[in-house]
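Researcher: If convenient, please comment on what follows.
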Amino acid sequence: MSLDQNLNKVIIIDFGSQFTQLIARRIRELGVFSEIISHKKIKVKDINQSVKGIILSGGPLNVYQLNKYSFDSKILELRIPVLGICFGHQILSKLNGGKVKQSKHREFGLANIYKKGNSLLTKNFFGKKKSKKVWMSHADQVSKLPKNFKVVSSSSNSKYAIVENKLKKFYGIQFHPEVTHTENGKKLISNFIFQICKIRKNWSSKDQKIKLIKDIKLKVGPDKVICALSGGVDSSVVAQLLNKAIGKKLYCVFVNTGLLRKNEEAQVVQTFRKRLKMNLIYVNAEKEFLKKLKNISDPEKKRKIIGNLFIKIFERYAKKIKNVKFLAQGTLYPDLIESKSVTGSETSKIKSHHNVGGLPKKMSLRLVEPLKFLFKDEVRKLGLELKLSKDIISRHPFPGPGLAIRMPGIITNEKIKILKEADYYFIQALKEHGLYHKIWQAYAALLPVKTVGVMGDNRTYEYLCLLRAITSEDGMTADFYEFKKSFMQIISNKIVNSIRGINRVVYDVTSKPPSTIELE
């Protein structure tokens, strides 16, 4: 993102934390514009009068690794309020004359902090108990405060959990107020923005829509764009954004991989070609995908094969259409941080999303990813602003690789047929019982395990079906949905009695972390 010259804003200087976009998200929720800029790129000359506050993010480095990070310390001389979070807190202290050292006791997870003094930053944060549970994630800590800094809060392992220099309007927080695990953490960010930076609300879904359409027009210019359309929330919102931005220069390509949900292809064609009147090209590539995936069981190979084949198909149709320079995708921020570092810092790769780490290194098309810094619920709000119907906006997420990553092991036509039916019955049952909209995402998976069962007087030896339903705010963390026993009995009986090939149903009660939402 580039520094906007006009709108009052907070800039977030990113040192590679996986939580950086959560900071930006909290600020957007508060109705204020913010931008993220890598610590490698931001210089004091880039900061104009529209910048009313600066946040230094966390990160995987430490302050001793001077060769690994860069920071223009003259930024701290601009008399703009600064909030340092975790690693940012340590940098702020170090550059003002304090000391940072390795902690005797690392803190990862929940910790209690206690009020030690008053501050505008903590106004209405602590409450009557004068303590709060917060989310810590650090191995280093400030060991000596800089001159004119005071302690606002401490934990048992971090004497300087919250500190401030009231005169310079410098504030340091050792924990992460942006994550949902920190009690009332959003209040700290709110106080920094409104009480300390004195910024007024200036941002909404409507503003987001206008800015994204403007950005797309500037990037694409007179060229044509292919949009990878799956019919899910993300790609549907991208398609509508592009439709508003470039109209007839947009060509939506919907690829039937053979790994879609039951009746999905018919629903997508009906919605986008007939209802929304978009240029839609339907490609039946079922045989092509299943041939490439034959005898492949490794999940990373599956994702890369699917990602590469998608691109080949898009490039094939780009040549047919002619003068297509761009490929638009519904990539979201959680996809990016699980697949690769967003800023080039040393963050952990969890798995390759087919549309990020699964893409080929060389592509003839340039990417357009307008949603790549947003979370799922923000995309849904944007979709409503774009006048997409609620039946599209409220759909549960569905992965690009489709059912391929919901059947660990080798993919076969028989397994696909069985899994489509199981997933269909599960989703229909959720809708019939008024549960679908209470759940973030739900699906059936077919495990590569057969078990003995008995039906009537006969022995069966069939697949084990796993059901997963989770609640979440943004897909970054998740918990399983607690169904009533009566519902579990209904859906288990329905699947086992209706589908030949399944004789046992289990329910996944693992949260994220330690697991991911999808199985592969």
Summary: DSSP finds 13 helices and 18 strands in the chain. The longest strand covers residues 99-115.
